[in-house]
Amino acid sequence: DTLRFWTTEEQPERLAKQEELAAAFKEKTGIEVNVIPVSESDLGTRATAAFAAGDLPDVIYHTLQYALPWAEAGILDTEAATEVFENLGASTFAPGAAAMAAVDGGVASVPVDGWTQMVIYRKDLFEENGLAAPDSYENILAAVEKLHNPPEMFAFVSATKIDENFMSQVLEHVLLANGVSPVDANGFKPLDEKKTIEALDFYKAISKASPPGDLYWKQSRELYFAGKAAMIIWSPFILDELAGLRDSAPPTITDDPTSSELASKTGVVTTLSGPSNADGAAWADIRYFGITNDADTEAAMQFVEFSMDEGYLSTLSIAPEGKFPIRRGNKDNATAFVDGWAELPVGVDRKAALTDLYDADTIKTIVSGLDTASRWGVKEGQLSLASKMINSQVINRLVREYIDDERDAAATVTKLNEELAKIQ
Amino acid sequence: MGAIQLNKVEKWFGTLQVIKGIDLQVEDGEFVIFVGPSGCGKSTLLRLISGLEETSRGTIDIDGKDVTALPPSGRGLSMVFQSYALYPHMSVRDNVGFGLKTAGVPKEEIARKVNAAADVLKLDEYMDRRPKALSGGQRQRVAIGRAIVREPGAFLFDEPLSNLDAALRVEMRLEIARLHKSLGTTMIYVTHDQVEAMTLADKIVVLQAGRIEQAGSPRELYERPDNLFVAQFIGSPKMNVLPCSIEGDRFSLQGHGGGRYPHAGVARKPVRLGVRPEHISVTGPDEGHHCTGTVEVTEYLGSDTFLYVALDGLETVLVRISGSETVEEGSRIGLKFDETRMHFFDADDQAIR
Amino acid sequence: MGAIQLNKVEKWFGTLQVIKGIDLQVEDGEFVIFVGPSGCGKSTLLRLISGLEETSRGTIDIDGKDVTALPPSGRGLSMVFQSYALYPHMSVRDNVGFGLKTAGVPKEEIARKVNAAADVLKLDEYMDRRPKALSGGQRQRVAIGRAIVREPGAFLFDEPLSNLDAALRVEMRLEIARLHKSLGTTMIYVTHDQVEAMTLADKIVVLQAGRIEQAGSPRELYERPDNLFVAQFIGSPKMNVLPCSIEGDRFSLQGHGGGRYPHAGVARKPVRLGVRPEHISVTGPDEGHHCTGTVEVTEYLGSDTFLYVALDGLETVLVRISGSETVEEGSRIGLKFDETRMHFFDADDQAIR
Amino acid sequence: MSAQTRQPVSEGPPKGIGPMQRREMWLAYLMLAPTFIIILVIVAGPLLANFWISVKPVQLGDLRPPAVLVNERLRGDPEAAGDSATLEYRLRNSSRDEEIRDVVLKDEVPAGFTVTGLPQGCELTGSALSCTIGTVEPGWRDRLGLEGTVSDVFLAANRPERASEPVVTGDANNVLTNFEFTFENFSRIFSADEFWSVLRVTFYYTIFGTGGALVLGLFAAQLLHTAFPGRGFLRGLFLFPYVSPVIAVAFTWVVLFDPFSGTLNALLTKMGVVSDPINFFGQRAIEFSVFGIPFEFPLALTTVIAFEAWRYFPLSFLFILARMQSINTDMYEAAEMDGATPLQQFWYLSLPQLMGILSVLFLLRFIWTFNKFDDIFLLTGGNAGTRTLTVDVYEQGFALSNLGAGAAVAVVVFVVLVTFATLFIRFSPKEEGL
Amino acid sequence: MRPASILLTAVTGLLWGVMAMVVIGVTLTLITGEVALPQATAAGLAGLLGALVFVWRCSAAGAGGAPAWAYSAVVVFLVLMIASFAAPFTLPLSVVPVWQGLALIVFVAGVTAAIRLCLRDARFGPMSRYEREVIYIRIAKGIGFVVFTIIVALPFYVMVMTSLKSQQALLANPLDLSIDFSQGLSGLTRSYVELFTQFNFGRYLMVSAFVSVATVVLTLLLSVPGAYAVSRLRFPGQALLARSVLLIYMVPAIVLVIPLYAVFSQLGLRNTLTGLLIVYPATTIPVALYMLQGYFRGLPAELEEAGLMDGLSRIGVILKITLPLSLPALASVSLYVFMIAWNEFLFAFMFLDDPDIFTLSRGVVSLNSSEVPRQHLMAGAVIATVPVLVIFLWFERFLVQGLTAGSVKG
Ligand SMILES: Nc1ncnc2c1ncn2[C@@H]1O[C@H](COP(=O)(O)OP(=O)(O)OP(=O)(O)O)[C@@H](O)[C@H]1O
Ligand SMILES: Nc1ncnc2c1ncn2[C@@H]1O[C@H](COP(=O)(O)OP(=O)(O)OP(=O)(O)O)[C@@H](O)[C@H]1O
Ligand SMILES: [Mg+2]
Ligand SMILES: [Mg+2]
């Protein structure tokens, strides 16, 4: 009677924490949990393949983009998830996150944690050059103009590796910022040509201000850490590393890999706006526990409940800087988990609380992003379709081709609409 | 033990018939040699007897028992291969004893028999070497040793000496003769070497194209060949053949003289005359002779000299004279045939006797 | 063109000396044959001349010009290899013409010369075949053709016939003789075949262990060998050698009779007597003879019979008699040597003359 | 004697095979059987499956036949004997497109559970429960509650309801096994522009990769043909790329060629050869113009081809070297005597002699390169203009879950290869076969 | 004096000068981390003059005194120093002087040796086409050796060196591939230690070894009888069977993966080593069978016939004669199969998700896909490579023999 638990948190130190959690769970229930790391980029294919083969694990820790498609494909047992959700108390969860995974009469999976995407920039350089914080297309382009000076300094490190989720995330963020969405309440909605072209041009501009090639989170971080990039888009997981708390990803701007100097020079923006959407938008990712249809349902439910309750703080402690609590508290204390989380130390090789590393403003920006953040299709109730569009990587591919000058902007929009229309 | 009888044996490779119905009786203890031109089926016939090839038709009896369908292991024969086929991964001792070991003979007995064979073949010094570390002649001895220890009904040899150099070949030939004398076992031996066949055999079987041309003792084949093929095949250098014609009891060579024809009573008429180089003597061009010609080439070999004599209007004839005689190239000479040793052949190439 | 002179030529492979200082003069147009036991350095010497091996010491002159340091292409010689070394992917025509092509000879001229060579060697029919599709003899002809077209100063042959069967060997031997006669070019020829050496050579060079033992015409070597090695090496079957002692002008064989010793005036005293099998005749055991013995083995070959006669108290002696005579195995006979053809050797194996 | 052997030739070759050969035949079949069974199962089977799937509109998920999924649970937290509880079956049609007919649920009621209320359509015989549900719609879901009371026996057991698994049977149309065929997959892939560019890339990759490996191998073989001290060492070294795990060398190349932190780019920029780092594996094309005509140089594809040539030249090197060493040296000596210069010897003698092995190698390497998946998958994932057919199989079948399309591409691969091999074997130099 | 001969000499020297300088300069850079810009022009000039002097001295035969190459070496050194203004690597001599000195010595020695080897018998007088071509070929071969050695060795060098560094050092100076001994042994091998302690590589190593060896055993068990039957026994369909085995070459592994994935999952074989041990032999047997039958065919049939005459049955012949004689072939097949199994990536990648049974290849992929630092990835690559390379070097002879004997006739 062993539960199989797929997790995308596969670095050894994070795996170790999850295994501790599993051990604790076994202690309590006698049910063994086999923690299986799966690369995030493989998760989609592997899950589909496993479903086809009738060999699904019991529980999957997955991102928002899979929640609804998987529920629809029959991979997820939404009833079980809903039951867990209700057992834990729907009201203890942050409402937005649960809504994103809502299905008929419940949730597709149980929301666990979330984070918002950030524009990380060199506050020192911006101040030096009298630049405004990069919270809009305009400001960013202005900064590009000023700061781009390759190869010593790239103004931006954009995302251009089309098979990386990272590119989808960044693109969606940029498009959202200008109010572009491929869905409305009735399903597919052709992209607005003007807004899309603005966003495409912007994206092309920042990509041209980036180093050549297939870029994704790896290069963004390396270059920023080396002091060779002025702006990047990244998740909050970078916060501890930026402060020199993790040896395997050290800031290399100075000779001292443990220095938090770079952190102090860094500013953060979560909400980005475009010319046609003055309000701007933030982009959030939520992670869920999904219980599969091949699962030993009861045991799986127990495990999820345990992880979301007694084990919740351990779950969050895997990487507190990028795992903001979605469950605020338990029946006894409505803010138990939020409070507990705030005290969790971040970092791997060295530990420190976030509050020690960043000023209060920054932290506030980071955390509050989660409340306003959105995704395509959430408001419209078409998250599932939007996720499929994203998962198909069509947008990535065509945008990349646009960046590579294979097609002009208008043609790209047309082509995008064509291809997206095919996706049901 | 050791009498082998072939009855109408045929061998087909697919639709190619290689052995075309052979009847042969090998007596126990006889030394039989198969000779014939390359590709005539000597090896195949030997392999049929050994059981390494399946007989297509006909039967093979050993000591009166039909063994046609038995595998090699069931026939109780030994074979010595041209390439020796020693097991390279075994010592000489193990090579020789291998056949006994597979037969489940107890160790001491194997050792005894192997040593006995080693004594006979003077192999004692090499018993622990691998075949690779032996010379050609030693390897050949090991191969024979391997055949001996199993005390087979008959030995089969397939050109056992052809990989040895001339001197060694002479030595091993004598050794095999001695072995046959001492063991008295039936031996069937394939060779294409004249000398081996003549010196070793009790009976030579001349094969051509899957058929037996003649079988008999060496002297029989040399002196009384059945047909032109055997006549030219046996004897070295080979018999000269000249066209001839007959009138009454005299034969004549076209444009030359003639002589007495001994088989006047036989109905078949000869068209060719055969005479061996060693049975021709040189005379002056005007003395009594059968024919005249010009010496084209002389080959001086020390002991003998060969003359290539271009007969006037006929072929070139080879003549053997003693090495001490000298004949100039280009000189005209007469040739005289030994009349008791001439052979006559009819239009079907059959000898007239 | 074609006179070759070796002056104190030596060849070392690392620390192994293979050729030990050879002086040799090959006249223009001469047919010189190197013979000797395997490994004596025949091939090496030929390759030194060809330039395929570098000469370690000494010089080689061709037509008076020192070519010791020139690559093969600069020496103007042609070579025929034992393995023929034909280019397997080229037609016979291209094989023969290759040497001309590399020299940049115009196409028409190549075609003309190649056709001329093909005529001489009767290769016309095969000109467009690949070597694989030729028989051994034809391949040998192609190899020779390749050597001819370049009109070399001399031909070098390294055992050119040893891969052919006996009959073909005889034929090709005659062909080479004819070729030499018609071209008149110098030829240097390596063989280990007695018959080839005796029949082809103007001059035979007997090598042993990198040194020349004797050089001379075939008859010289057969009749007047310089030493025991040459005496036994030349002539087949080889010379019988028996220990002997001398008293005045008579020699005697231990336990047997004796005869006249012709070199009584020579200071060196012989310890051995050599006589060839063909120079011994059989007598009755009681008639006049040099020695007596028992016939151990008789080998009947048709034309000749060889007797292995175990002399009383001495070695076995080989005797050649005519095939028509018969001697029983085991019978006692007397042997009489041809007194004019006996050889005597001193303790250093040098012939006494 | 001779007259007797000269009998007429008998009636032609014997028919059938003799007993010795029959024994041999059975032995042979017996010895070959395991090999053929395993190959049939592991290779031929999947291959046929591919052909089958390629003419069916199958998604990855369709591999799982439509079925009613069932989940059995105990509801109502009974704590003492006599408490009532519900044994609940959750049922769900796994398919969203296919209905399932004649659905029947069968289960054993756990010991100690006394049924008090049966849902409609259910019968209880002893402890055997059987519920007839009938035809269910695509996407249908339902719950069946079996009410009852529990006894101590029941409570004492650990999750007693799991003692027997409920079994649901039903018939459904299964795209995988039915006999409806379609060429939609083929028409879909053939009509996509992408497919043709993939095909083109595949041929570039295969031809240049193969050619590169062959040329490098030929050159390396020339280097190591003659003996010199250290030859053994160099030969070993030259084989490294081939012997090492693809995973190791592929990642090493990626690291080495990395535009930001790769040694090679650092070297090139520092030495002033290029001004900006080159993204060897990420950049689709470098544009340049000659006399005003723009050209595109497919950078990533070239790098991948270079990798292919680098990794597989040792194989051709080995074979060519072995062949060269088996060429009789006599032939070269003859050529020396014939006055051929070294280059003439190479051109007129070595090269023609090597044609046989070169063409065999070309065939083998062509097939293998055409089939290559790992290398490109690891180096570029098929991006930046390096997607080959095999990567496309993976993308279509696995990443996009369109199994039918993937299988159709696989069929194309197979057909192209078989065609190529047949043509090649017919028209290539025949000196040595496989 | 022939202009052509002089030109040939000069070009030879020039080529070697430039070549040696680039190679040595880059090596110096990689070893020390200092950017050494090679002075190609100066080096070319030095080589050119060195070559001319060498041939000149050679031609002046019998001149006695120092050998020609000594003159040449001196010229090379002097010209290089003068033409590069005493900074042959554009570094001030005070920077890493020991390494620079060493590099300079290697340069002079290398160029002189190369000139000497290439121009051994050259002269300024007329040379035949033959002699000139000999020189061309020497030059081409020399350059070939250098280039091949570099392109083959460089990636492996980078692999090993990267694995010994820290992420920070790597990012700071990608050119610096020297070994930083200052961090001590534990610092150097930190990646390895972490891989073995945290990333479970010890286990992967065991799994890989087990899978590979088991594959070898299974493959041999199945392919030896098959190969024997195909090569020695006569039976209807022999040629067809022998050839059809080769059809497997035509089937891309990726085509097999998807159906096998489904079936194996259903049979519970996916994500098990048993599953791998079914697939691996299936892919290796045809190759093994092919190699072995080539070898078996090459064994003299007479040996087996001798065995038959000695009273053995067919099976006895195989066991007692054929197999012992085939040891080299068995060794090479084993090695080859071992290599295939050890290096196999696709099936391991698709079939295995449980880290407890990862093979090394599978383990290394998982290093790539997470935020694992690059030196870990490279250390993983090294761990995956070293065993197979060691085994390969040990048995190289066999591999070479077997590979070629098996598939190439004549
Ligand atoms: N396995 C076989 N399949 C087909 N034909 C064969 C086979 N073995 C032999 N032959 C043919 O049978 C004929 C006789 O062959 P065999 O080997 O018996 O000749 P041979 O007399 O021994 O010749 P040699 O003196 O060359 O050894 C030849 O034409 C040969 O080609
Ligand atoms: N390349 C070489 N390296 C070392 N030793 C060699 C070489 N070539 C020949 N030898 C040795 O030189 C000696 C003479 O060899 P060579 O081939 O000239 O003999 P040969 O008289 O031609 O013999 P055969 O009649 O067997 O051809 C032999 O002992 C041989 O081992
Ligand atoms: Mg034969
Ligand atoms: Mg020789």
UniProtKB/TrEMBL annotation, chains B, C:
Main location: membrane
GO CC field: ATP-binding cassette (ABC) transporter complex, substrate-binding subunit-containing; maltose transport complex
CDD domains linked to this entry: ABC_MalK_N (cd03301)
Occurrences of domain ABC transporter (ranges): 4-234
Subcellular location, record wording: Cell inner membrane
Entry superkingdom: Bacteria
Keywords noted in UniProt: ATP-binding, Nucleotide-binding, Sugar transport, Transport
PANTHER family, per the entry: MALTODEXTRIN IMPORT ATP-BINDING PROTEIN MSMX, MALTOSE_MALTODEXTRIN IMPORT ATP-BINDING PROTEIN MALK
Family: Belongs to the ABC transporter superfamily.
A GO molecular function held by the record: ATP binding
Organism of this sequence: Roseibium marinum
Designated name of the protein: Multiple sugar transport system ATP-binding protein
A UniProt-annotated Pfam family: ABC_tran
Lipid bilayer topology: Peripheral membrane protein
TrEMBL record, chain D:
Protein family membership: Belongs to the binding-protein-dependent transport system permease family.
UniProt keyword list: Cell membrane, Membrane, Sugar transport, Transmembrane, Transmembrane helix, Transport
Ranges annotated as spanning the membrane: 26-53, 203-224, 236-256, 299-322, 346-368, 403-425
GO biological process, alphabetically ordered: transmembrane transport
Entry membrane topology: Multi-pass membrane protein
Domain ABC transmembrane type-1 per the UniProt entry, residue ranges: 199-424
Protein name: Multiple sugar transport system permease protein
Top-level taxonomy: Bacteria, Pseudomonadati, Pseudomonadota, Alphaproteobacteria, Hyphomicrobiales
Main localization of the protein described in the UniProt heading: membrane
PANTHER family to which the protein is assigned, alphabetical: ABC TRANSPORTER PERMEASE PROTEIN (PTHR30193), INNER MEMBRANE ABC TRANSPORTER PERMEASE PROTEIN YCJO (PTHR30193:SF37)
Signal peptide residues on this chain, from the entry's feature table: none
Classification via Gene3D superfamilies: MetI-like
TrEMBL record, chain E:
GO terms under cellular component: plasma membrane
Alphabetical UniProt keywords: Cell membrane, Membrane, Sugar transport, Transmembrane, Transmembrane helix, Transport
Signal peptide: none
Primary localization: membrane
GO biological process: transmembrane transport
Compartment(s) where it occurs, according to its Swiss-Prot or TrEMBL record: Cell membrane
Highest taxon above the source species: Bacteria
Family: Belongs to the binding-protein-dependent transport system permease family.
Entry protein name: Multiple sugar transport system permease protein
